[in-house]
Amino acid sequence: MDEAARDVAAEAAEGGAYTRLQKELTAVKNDIAHLSQQIADAVNALATIAQRETRRGMRRARENVDTVVSDASERAGAMASAAQEAASSLQESLEEVIEERPLTSVAIALAIGFLVGVTWRR
């Protein structure tokens, strides 16, 4: 009978071990599911942060571009004003020279016209 009792005890021990193994596997599966959810939450949080930072970067880039365009526009306006003033000054100077020396001015104009004509012909 000892042998029968031992068999019963062995089967009971195996049954208890099997039950324990099933419980541990269930616990591991639950832990893996919990970790998977935590990883998904972390990835979502990182994606939200990345979107926010990207928007900030784009906003800063737009502001920088607007500043550069504004500066370029101001500089172009200043250059146009300077060119207009230079042209006006040149016009006034030419008018003064023409009024002071009309014959010399006509001779210079004829010479320039002749040179342009010769150059154009070639």
What is the mean predicted local confidence, pLDDT?
86
Share of β-strand residues = under 5%
Radius of gyration: 47 Å
**Biggest beta-sheet profile:** none
- Please state the oligomeric state of the protein chains shown: single chain
Number of strands: 0
Topology as a string of helices (H) and strands (E): HH
End-to-end CA span: 132 Å
Query: What structural class do you assign from the helix and strand content?
Result: mainly alpha
What general outline do the C-alpha atoms trace?
Answer: rod-shaped
Q: How many separate structural domains?
A: 1
Description:
- It is a single chain.
- This protein has 122 residues and is an all-alpha fold.
- The protein has one domain (2-89).
- It has two helices and no strands.
- Helix 1 crosses helix 2.
- The radius of gyration is 47 Å and the shape is rod-shaped.
- The N and C termini lie far apart (132 Å).
- The model has no long low-confidence stretch (mean pLDDT 86).
Give a short summary of the structure.
The chain is 98% helix and 0% strand. It has 122 residues and is mostly helical. The chain has one domain.
Provide the descriptors you would attach to this structure in a database record.
mainly alpha, 98% helix, 122 residues
